[in-house]
Amino acid sequence: MKYSYYPGCSMHSTAAEFESSFRFVAGVLGMELTEVEDWFCCGATPAHITDPLLGLALPTQNLLQARPTGLDVATTCAACYNRLKTANRVALEKPKKREALAQILGEEYKGEIPVRHILDIFVNDVGVDNIQRNVLFPLNGLRVASYYGCLLTRPPEVADFDDVENPVTMDKIVEALGGVALEWPFKTECCGASFSLSRSDIVGRLAGEIMRYAKQAGAECIAVACPLCQSNLDLRQKEASEYEGVEFNMPILYITQLMAVAYGGGGKDVGLGKAIVNAESVVHRVFGHRGSERVER
Amino acid sequence: MARIGVFVCWCGSNIAGTVDVKKVAEEVSKLPYVVYSTDYKYMCSDPGQNMIKEAIKEHRLTGVVVSACSPRMHEVTFRRTVQEEGVNPYMMEMANIREHCSWVHDDMEEATEKAIELVRMAVAKAVELEPMEKIEVPVTKRALVIGGGIAGIQAALDIADGGVEVILVEKSPSIGGKMSQLDETFPTLDCSQCILTPKMVDAAQHPNIKIYSYAELEELDGFIGNFQARIRQKARSVDMELCNGCGDCWNKCPQKKIPSEFEAGMSDRAAIYVPFPQAIPNTPVIDRENCIYFQSGKCGVCAKICPTGAISYDQSDEFITEEVGAVVVATGYDLFNTDVIGEYGYGEIPDVISGLQFERLSSASGPTEGKIVRPSDGKKPEEVAFICCVGSRDDKYGRPYCSRICCMYTAKHAILLHHKSHGSQAYVFYIDVRAGGKGYEEFLRRATEEEGAIYMRGRVSRLYRDNGKVVVKGADTLSGAQIELHCDMVVLANGITASPGAEELARKLSISYDEYGFYSEAHPKLRPVETNTAGIYLAGCCQAPKDIPDSVSQASAAASKVLALFSGDFLTREPNIAEVNPFTCTGCFTCREVCPYDAIDEEEVTVHIDGKKVTRTIARVNLGKCQGCGICCAVCRSNAINLKGTKDLQIFRQIKAFTGSEKEKSDEPVGSKK
Description:
The complex is a heterodimer of chains A (297) and B (674).
Chain A: E1 2-6, H1 16-28, E2 32-35, H2 44-50, H3 52-66, E3 73-75, H4 78-93, H5 95-105, E4 115-117, H6 118-133, E5 143-146, H7 169-176, E6 180-181, H8 195-198, H9 200-216, E7 221-224, H10 227-235, H11 237-244, E8 252-254, H12 255-262, H13 267-270, H14 280-287
Parallel strand pairs in A: 1-2, 1-3, 3-4, 5-6, 5-7, 7-8
Chain B: E1 4-9, H1 13-16, H2 21-28, E2 34-40, H3 46-59, E3 63-68, H4 71-84, E4 92-96, H5 108-128, E5 135-138, E6 142-146, H6 150-161, E7 165-169, E8 184-185, E9 190-191, H7 192-205, E10 209-212, E11 215-223, E12 226-233, H8 248-252, E13 258-259, E14 268-269, E15 272-273, E16 285-286, H9 292-296, H10 301-305, E17 318-324, E18 326-329, E19 333-335, E20 352-354, H11 355-362, E21 383-390, H12 406-420, E22 425-430, H13 440-450, E23 454-457, E24 460-466, E25 469-476, E26 481-487, E27 489-494, E28 496-498, H14 502-509, E29 536-538, H15 548-565, E30 570-573, E31 578-580, H16 590-594, E32 600-609, E33 612-621, H17 631-635, E34 641-643, H18 648-659, H19 662-667
Parallel strand pairs in B: 1-2, 1-3, 3-4, 6-7, 6-18, 7-10, 18-29, 20-27, 21-22, 21-27, 22-23
Antiparallel strand pairs in B: 5-30, 8-9, 11-12, 12-17, 13-14, 15-16, 19-28, 24-25, 25-26, 31-34, 32-33
Helix pairs in contact in B: 2-5, 3-4, 5-18, 6-7, 6-15, 11-12, 12-13
């Protein structure tokens, strides 16, 4: 299983633990990653708000740089995934924009490189059986609410690997790791996204509602697969708790962190130390205190 | 030698306003074989037709070209005109210089030139026309009705009342269909059972109606007037003669945990069961999939308890062949499967129910005897949300069409809630309210003005549970507000989809269906109950979503078509169908592969080749089935099939008349054989 890997900016900064845990998990599952040569920002939200064509040119150029490997492009961040997939869709379906982009970039891109989110790769390429087979430390019935946010499944014609309103890929992984995937209604509600900086009150309210329902469903932690979702639920949990009038104390973990824990990753692989809301407690409750070294397989 | 008369019509100013009709008549008079040409204001009027008749007599015309409107309009008229004067009706050809010329052009000079071209082509064809006789096919005066819902029952009763025998085939254990499951019906709030049950009894007791329940059509052979229907009578496991419907068997059956289809899963039934107390026939069937005896070989309680010894475990499916002359398809519909809408949580949240489940909750014969309660805890729902257009008018689920019944049944549900659950409040989320039927708008106003239902225009984006309530998140697009309601129960107004197996049945019947699986009528306005396959008619929701009044109307219309078909001993059909040349047909049967009507039969012929007798199998066109579409002619490798009335030669003459050089047109006769 070889992939061209597009990390995106967050993975080298705010979501470094997403990166480290993913790289560890990929190694265990036998995924070979080749980082896209000289990759740069996908443009995220600011680019397409500034100029729609800029918002397409940035991901398209990144895909052009990934093209020589001939591999599927794997990405971890939900926003990167969304931008790269959007670039593909435009290249396939909008000939005029394709031409305009070719003028700007000096090379035509026809949308031929499949862009895959790692959840899609885990469930559909690696397979739930393989995910389960590699578990050294089962999650022992840890009750996990999988939170997908907006961009992993929307818009459905762009992101098309899971049910748009009731996605289940992360839940399948949680079950495979030995956890309990909870049925809960706020899987795809918005976390407030980049309002985190300009209108943190809105993020507090939205994150508060999400956490209220996760708690109601009996969640011990929330699993995410998007750096911004993680940051909003974790970093703004204080505001959320104030809004709801409850102390949530809800650890927010990347799904790859849960996998890394189950696969015996070392402290640096799992990267629990970066969380604002202490996540160590969850791991300790389930596994007891374990050294910070990787477990030899 | 052909003698052709040309008659150019003005159609008032319709043609004459754009086409110089005098010039057309004059120009075409110079064509070979044309011995007479004239023009007149209205050729279709009595004086106009008399002109044609006079000219036939006076000029001994062998063929007539009428240059006027579309043949769809007046071909029949002018064929009759020439026939009355002793000319074979198929020796008349029309040139359409109205729809194809005057109506679509402005420039008189060019339009006149085009009209002359059109008439020249028609004359070229008219020279090659051959007399034809109408085809007579004998008729079996019995009808097959497939589907025993209200549409099928109505069609069967109307046909039977017309003195014709009817075979009614219903796949479930009882006739009655979806209507039997409904509570009260809009817009009059008649009790559905009370108006349906008498019709079911009428159908069962009618001397001309024979019902096969728990049976399906296996195969349909033959053609209009002469079908052979092979019917599979599924094994009931109960002898219908011996059973007296006492009910001991289903009361004593130990397997009682099967979700009842009739109750839409709101209560359970036994493995041996009649679907509902008023079922016709009132003979139970054993559901072998769920029967302990059939699954494990043990039990046999029903056989032990039956006082008449009617239980018959070793019954097997039987096949019956019935000869019929016409078929009415009335196979109904299914409700849109709401499982696919992730955000509504149907099946996950017990208090989110389907429209049909609400009918059963509200019905006096239902699992709660008409008491409207929440499925989760049996409590009275104080606040109930109704969501319209669930699986209708929604491209996302491939259903852009309107299901036509949901707006009205939702208004009815709101009213029934108000009547039966005092103090409960109905909230209705809608896109538009479509209340187009007789008394429907008034009924809707009654729901909102007198019965207190609150209507909000907007879609619901999500349903989820919170503290025993169902949270309804949506929008009121008129006020622009986001809505969050905490309701006790939510009713989804499921749309209509084609019934399961509709496409498979269509293939058995050789009828066409649309992209959604609804059967196609022959013409959306003017032939709404006929299919493109002669002798097969449509009634009810199998053709498109419709309510009870429309289904019943269409059923009666289909019945009248069947009775008209059976009014004579023979069927008369137009002769312009395909014809095989037995000398050139090689018997490759490519024609059979492409024929949409299954109209190619085999025939053994003996021919003499070089003094030797040779027997070959060649194609023969079935006079009853062929619809004259001409696909076979296009694929025939040896050019042995021709469509009578538009034979290759006739078409080539037309093309030559159109494309040939000026010299050819004027100097050489167009027709060669005469």
